[in-house]
# Entry
Amino acid sequence: MLNQLKWIAAAVLALGIVPAGSGQAANQPETNDPVAQSLIEMERQWSESATPTDEIRVVQKIFAEDFLGTDTDGKLYTKSEKIAEEKARTSTGEVLSPHLDEVKVRFFGDNLAVLYGRESSIRKSKEGKEYTRRVIWTDTWLKRVGRWQIIAVQDMVAQPSVASPLPAQSESLLIEDLTWTEVRDAIGAGKTTAIYYAGSTEQNGPHMALGKHNFIARYVSQRIAEKLGNALVYPVMPFGPTGDIARRITCIFPAVSLFLRTPLARWLVKLLSAQLLLDSRTLSSWEITEAIRKH
Amino acid sequence: MGDHGGDQEALKKVADALDHDWSPTGTHVHYIPDLYYKEKEQMREYLTKRNMAIDQHAGIDDTSEVMFIDMDGKWIRKDKLAPDNGKMGVEGDPTQASAELGKMFIDFKIQDAVVQIRDLVEGRK
# Structure
């Protein structure tokens, strides 16, 4: 009997805490459960923050220091990044009546809760049309030292209630990916900011490809356009005044680059793009002298 | 705006000249220096605090940024990472670069540019 007990004890030890959790359904709280109510209330304060100041106050309180979240762009962010982003937000006018629509709470043990929610807000597009933006999220709450805080969130945007007139393939912000009618329609729909981002093709040591600036330019310009919401990205200029150590490789670039800065090239570019694509620039005589001297 | 130091002054000149030419038609052209200069300040402040080599060219800053966006592993030769020896076109120490740093520097650029574009566009109204 004693042996049997020992075996049972050993088996339980070997399984550790698993039997307590595995197979046990998550606890769905009563509607008036005070903990669930307070978590929902904190979510409501966050969802319905009307200004960046409100949002920062709520985030300071409810985000754990080691929080990580995934935003609707798929970008991972920390607590301090969220606060910095809110501080830098200059315009708040386009978000109206944010509302927490629905939340479900599930407890997993005493210290872990997952909240599944939906919220909506009325937004104004650049052309003044109002539409409803719905966000669906999953937030993970952890109780540590008696305090509930969010340790992880994942947000996604539900299909907007106003159907987009553009099919998915033409939602690119790079005009190179669009047809001319799509560019025309996008400008007509309010994308009136043209991002022109100059790169360069140059040596970057033996460890990095020549197109460094151009790769960064393509990535960063698209992210800027996404954040602005009213912008399209024009082709990246791949040449700039440069070249030193790998002169054998880069010396052709200033030549092309010089041509691109002539009035003829400037005029051609203007003509082709109906003045929307900005050309590079005119070089000062000093810059031309420098470029010739170097190469 | 531009990613390359050698372009900055010329970009400003062209933006000013085109803005002057096109403003009467309702098209405005703004040069966005914060993308380049402000990010450089933020990057230097961050690296200085950590006693890391300050970027010049193809060092921590540049290499980290490309590491972050190089999803397919096409643009960095990890076996060739080496600090500046005065011969290979590297100024700085790319061996300390990481995709995590790159994400931070890239986010500085995006944030700095977005804030400045909004300021300039709103300031014009």
Q: What stands out?
A: Chain B has a mean pLDDT of 89.
